[in-house]
Amino acid sequence: MTAAEIEILAAQWLLRQEEPGWSEADREALDAWLDASAAHQAAYWRLEHGWRRADRIAARGVEPAAAPAAPRRFVSRRIAALAASLVVMAGGAAAWLAYEPGRATYATEIGGHEVIPLPDGTRVELNTDTRLRSEVTPERRTVWLDKGEAYFDVAHDKAHPFTIYAGKRKVTVLGTRFSVRRTGDQLQVTVVEGKVRVDPLAPARPAPPTVLTPGQIAIAKDAATLVTPKTVEDAAAELSWRHGMLVFDQYTVQRAAEEFNRYNRRKIVVTSPEAAQIRIGGTFEVENIDGFVELLQQGYGLKIEKTDDEVKITG
Amino acid sequence: MGAAGAGMPDRDELQVWFCAEVLPLERALTRYIARNWRNTADVADLRQEIYARVIEGAARGIPLQTRAYLFTTARNHLINCAKRGQIISLESVLDLSASHIAIDQLTPDRVVSAREEVGRLADALDRLPPRCREIVVLRKVEGLTQKEVAARLGIAVGTVEQQMVLGMRAIVDFMLGGSGRLKRPAPAPRKEAVP
Which of B45, B119, B143 lies nearest to residue A4, judging by beta carbons? Predict the structure, then answer.
């Protein structure tokens, strides 16, 4: 048996110990296996040592519980959760089991797209240039959208509403599918299924909550919340980024350019005011800037200047 | 390498010694093997074999000078393997001179700060392929059992265990100063050095 094969066996022993149903008989079998050869001991002790050390580091890395809305040091996508939630328990075998709340920070870069399973069964899809923090425990389901856009497929749980804080708004749901996009102070909520409630965090005067139903899109900025009734198909088009596509329906060239710019480091700049107001429609891959401007060139006779980091529409 | 007067250690003592005194030298040992063995694919296996020999020896009495004992064992093992396998020429074995050992002995293992260690663990996790990382995180961070992880992801429990094994080996390797690369099941096994 090679050293690598022995190491795999050692890892399996270590993992099985952490599963429910580990018995005294299993313990004896492990002891017998260890006694059988120094090579077994070497592999097992080494793995156990390193694995436990990971535990301890994670536990030591815990920062004092910050107020939920306070900015957290961004350690890595998931290590914050690991650090915050791993509890080292006496007795070794149970040490990997985490009973503490799962807090985590997730982020994507420009052009990024990531699907995150939350512990309650909710799925979150992060769009380009997005940052989201979560605290999902058996008692509480809360996320903070710091910037960008996310699509939520919220696991149904009547007893525990799912709450999204985004700037000055709070979005509450019981279980549904919708997206939230934050651009600075402006918030856009697009509902595909179920009901979603949007509240200001600190209302200047009492106001009825805004409740959105499928197909509705709410745009909220400052004190105002505008609800646009659309069809479910329109709402779905708003979420085309989930498949890497941009769907434009009567968008101005300016707005289409801004959409492309969210996903790409190479930016489209519209310098001609007339060109910026032309209305267009179509479906594009999020990276396909060249295809987009080529169509503008051919279809509308617009002038294009390309450099390494910019595509200018000059007239 | 004198044996301690305490006589034969039991398994627990042996384990404490191995973890406290041998494993902290892993980084230096790995460098030593890599420098003196042509095929880098063998390094992890050779290291494991050296550990086994070191444990066998220490079972007769814990050595007083762990570092010297470890590197002498390593050197002898490499020479034996080279002779047996005739894989490399003996000239390169002659490089296994005491001077190398002396250098390694003088290089203190850097004391790593707690912050660096957290960063290192984060790096170790980030180096895992997405699927493997997801499974490790669900198991370790969310505290799901392997069965629950399998149900959540719609995959077989065996697959979860397989990925956990890969993840564990890579993380431990990285924690002990290695590259943290995944070790897939070994290809053609090298000639056995440990009976």
Answer: B45
